[in-house]
Amino acid sequence: MKQVAVLGLGRFGGSLVKEFYTLGIETLAVDKSIDKVNDFSDYATHTIQANTFDEFTLKQLGIRNFDLVVVSFGDDIEASVLTTLHLKEMGVKQVWAKAQNDYHHKVLEKIGADKIIHPERDMAKRIAHHVASEKIIDFIELSKDHSIVEIVASDKLHNKTLIDLDIRAKYGCSVVGIQSGEEVNVAPVADVVIKKGDILIVIGHNRDINRFEDVGV
């Protein structure tokens, strides 16, 4: 099982600790505030009060032994950058960092952060896509050009199979799952029958997904 360390217990970091707890993942939760450390003591395997931008402190925590370290205090850009830099230099396997803005993102990218997270921006995109289209109920950006979306099947798709629709050939995107009620069919076979109201989980280039949404659904 993975061992994870979350450095910074603000809204984002604290929420991560709680989710890891529900998933049974061993978590070290660290913050410079003793109040925040106490707030999450019931959810983390270990909680420690410390300033993690100090390299000696990180070594004392045995941070190099963790599979993943999340630097979640994006508001303090200097501390975020120094901590991420120390973690990479110490050879931590995976370092994920929360970015406050595009400049912060570029610096984290330069020093080798393995994944850079923009929680507010990512959530704003998901909400905006949902508002912009009645068909799209969720949107996850994979890269600048590729995404996964959940699209509600309309009358056009009712009682048709994936063979009938031939979505990959016509639109260039792929259906990787179909949710019908509470059941989710992952990697559906070509002759599965789609019903109105089913949720199609579609992956592909944004251009192709938009075309499928406009014409095919």
Descriptive tags:
single chain; 217 residues; Rossmann fold; Alpha-Beta Plaits; five-stranded antiparallel β-sheet; 9 helices; elongated
Notes on the protein architecture:
The protein is α/β, with parallel strands linked by helices and about 220 residues long. The chain has helices at about 10-20, 35-40, 55-60, 75-90, 100-110, 120-130, 160-165, 165-170, 205-215, and strands at about 5, 25-30, 45-50, 70, 95-100, 115, 135-140, 145-150, 160, 175-180, 185, 195, 200-205. It folds into 2 domains: about 5-115, Rossmann fold, CATH 3.40.50; about 120-215, 2-Layer Sandwich (Alpha-Beta Plaits). The chain is about 35% helix and about 30% strand. The strands form 3 sheets. Strands 3-2-1-4-5-6 form a 6-stranded parallel beta sheet, sandwiched between helices. The longest helix has 14 residues, at about 120-130. The radius of gyration is 21 Å and the shape is elongated. It starts with a strand and ends with a helix. The model has no long low-confidence stretch (mean pLDDT about 90).
